Amino acid sequence: MEEFINQKKAEMLELIEQLVNIDSGSYVKKGVDQIGSILNRKYEELGFVVEVNQEEEYGNNLVIRHKNSIEPKIILLAHMDTVFPEGTVAERPFRIEGKRAYGPGVVDMKSSLVELLYAIKALLHSGSNSGENIEIILNGDEEIGSPSSRALIEERAEGKEYALVMEPARKDGSLVMARRGGGRYTLMVEGKAAHSGIEPEKGRSAIEELAYKIIQLHDLTDHEKGMSVNVGLIEGGTAVNTVSDSAVAHVDVRISEMEQGEYLEEKMKEICATTDVPGTNVVLEGEIGRPPMEHNAQTKSLLHIIKDVGEEIGVKISGTATGGGGDASFTAATGVATVDGLGPVGGNAHSDKEYLEIDTLPERTLLLAMTIDRLSGKE
C-alpha cells in the first residue's frame, strides 16, 4: 500500500487544490454540496453506495458504505464545511510554498477528505476487503456544532466498535484523545428606562444587573477541573444618557466531564433566579450542545492499536487533549471507542495562515489504511 500511496501523492494534491478552491463555509450550502457531489462520484466509482441526506439550510450530509457492506464495525467522520465566508477563495486560493500547502480549509479538513478517499483506494488496490467494514459520514455543518448532522452521527454510531475521526493531527503529529464539551447560553435582562439626568432614580438599569451577573458567572470557572464560563459578547442600552431597559450576554461554557455541564447549568440558574438590582428581571436560555470526549479505557486501547501500526511504518504516534469541540464527542458519548486527529499534520486552522505539511499526507494516509485493516482483523 505504501508504494501505491506514494505514487498518488501528486494526484492527491490536485484533488486537495480542487476542494480548497471551492468556498464551503458552513453557511455556503451550494459550496458544501459541490464538495459532496465531487466526493459522491469518486466513492461511487470505487463501488460504494452514497446516501445523500438532503438539508434545506446547511450542506447535505453523506452516508457512504461499500456495496457489499453488511454490518460495518468502524465509523469514520469527516466534515466538508469550513469556517470561512463566501469569497475567501478569491482572496487567497490554494497555493504551495516549499513543503507546505495553504488555503482556506486546507488542513481543516479538505486534506483529510482526500486522505480518507485514498486510504480506501489503497485498501482496494492491495486486495483488502476491509473497506466493507467501514461506514463514512461526511457532514456539512461541523464547524457550527453539527445542528443538522448530530442525530445522524449518533444514530449511525450505534452498534459500532470503533470511531475514527478525521480532524487534522496536532502540529506535533499527535492524535486527539479527549475534547472538552460545551454549550451556548443567552442571558437576557429587562430593566426600566429613564433619563439619566432628569429622573435617574426612576430607572432600573439592565446593564448594571448584567454586570453583576457576568462577575458571578465568571466565578464558576475552574481551570484545574477543566471547566470554564466565558461571557464573550454583551449588548444593551439605547443611549448614553438613558438608564438601560435591556441588556443581553452571550455565554460560552466548556466542560471536561458531562457531570460538570449539569453542575454549571444548575449554578447558572441559581445565579439568574435572583437579581442584584431591584426591579430588573433575568431570563437564561441555552444548553450543553456538545458532550465532552472523555479520555477512557476504550480510547486508550484504540490508541494503542494505532501506535502499533505507526511503529510498523515508522510514524511515532502520541495522544493529547484539546479544548476545542468536535464530532468525536458524539461517537464517544454513545460508548464507541473513539480517536480523533487522524488527518494529516498542519496548523493555524481557522486563520488566513492555515497550512498543511505536505509530506505528512502519504504517511497519514498509510496509517489510516493500515489501521482500518488492523481493526478489521487483517494483518
Automatic annotation (TrEMBL):
SUPFAM superfamilies membership: Bacterial exopeptidase dimerisation domain (SSF55031), Zn-dependent exopeptidases (SSF53187)
Keyword Hydrolase: yes
Keywords: Hydrolase, Metal-binding
Coiled coil: none
UniProt domain Peptidase M20 dimerisation: residue ranges: 178-278
Record Gene3D superfamilies: 3.30.70.360, Zn peptidases (3.40.630.10)
Superkingdom of source: Bacteria
A matching Pfam family: Peptidase_M20
Keyword Endoplasmic reticulum: no
Listed name of the protein: M20 family metallopeptidase
Organism from which the protein derives: Mesobacillus maritimus
